[in-house]
Amino acid sequence: MSQDLGRLPAFDAEQDCVNVVVETPRMARGKFKYEPALGGFTLHKVLPLGFAFPYDFGFIPSTKGEDGDPLDVLLLLDVPVPVGTIVKTRLIGAIEAMQTQEDGRRLRNDRLLGKAIVEGGTVTDITQLPPGLVDSIEAFFTDYDRRQGKRFEPLARRDAAGAIELVKAGA
Asked: Whole-angstrom Cα distance, residue 55 to residue 78?
């Protein structure tokens, strides 16, 4: 891969959306991670049998969260998107969360929620999602972190405007 995906702009002003780079496809047990120094993706870990990402997971380039990594995004798509794909995304909300590391450090590690522009649809805000969906997403990340010796603690849910604010703060 010849370009540094982490240096792409966070926002796409033409389409009024954010760019998201997919690291891990929906239903994948392999967790991939973009490595800027390599210009590509590495297999970061393998999830236990029966445990997989519920949706495509990626990051917003040119941003940085408190944990030092680009901001995380869960793309609520019905199809898996290949690793490394850039998806024009409309943010619909966020789960603000505190993550306790294995060494006891506590850091904010929010999860933004988005819909692909190409998918269309009428969902523009987290409040329009089916009842229980965000609870299930929070439960996934809580269990995912627990399996790594970490703690994921949801603090609050933000609407679409709040998600955009988080990106601007991390850009």
From this structure: 8
Provide long-range contacts, Cβ within 8 A and 24+ apart, for 42-45: 45/148
Are the beta carbons of 34 and 89 closer than 8 angstroms? no
The model's pTM: 0.94
Query: Tokens 């988005």 identify what position?
Result: 114
CATH class of 5-170: alpha beta
Q: Are 87 and 81 in contact (CB under 8 A)?
A: yes
Cβ atoms 88, 19 nearer than 8 A:
yes
Beta carbons of 166 and 110 less than 8 angstroms apart = yes
Is 39 within 8 Å of 46 (Cβ atoms)? no
Q: What is the pLDDT of residues 40-71, one digit of tens each?
A: 999 999 999 999 999 999 999 999 998 889 99
